[in-house]
Input
Amino acid sequence: MADDDDVGLVLSEASEAMDKTIQSFRKELQRIRTGRASTALLDGVMVDYFDTPTPLNQLANLTTPDPRLIVVSPYDKGAMSNIEKAILASDLGLTPNNDGSVIRIAIPALTEERRKDLVKQVRKMAEEHKVGVREGRRDAISMLKDLEADGLGRDDRHRAEKSVQDLTDRFIAKVDELTAEKEKEVLEV
Output
């Protein structure tokens, strides 16, 4: 027989799934380039290090000494050219400058057109993550229907569905809030 503990578990699982979607969205937003330098821009860069794809942040110290510059200090100077190639091959549109001991990456100011493209990209990502939140809602409602078949009262199921919808609305609002913050950051000159 289904009871309030089962409903609580369904709500907890839904909340956890939706929260993972928000964390994923935050991480993806960090990779969107703004006018400011951020080491997070290089998070997805993989370097061919002794024939093994290795994340850049494991091969070098990344710093941002000023708002328009990222400095990459490789732990192994022999990896400099591979790091440089990996940055050039990434779709970030950044040009590394190798001086033999460190690689400097100047972050150019974004053009108006590029800013608009980035805003579109942010909105597309937001929509994808909203779909993820809604999938969490769909799964939770499906579980609640299963619980109703196991003896949960119809009124209890409707109350629980209302709670799931409230949870969904809260997480969708969070996606909208993060989207607005990132858009403002991208459009800032």
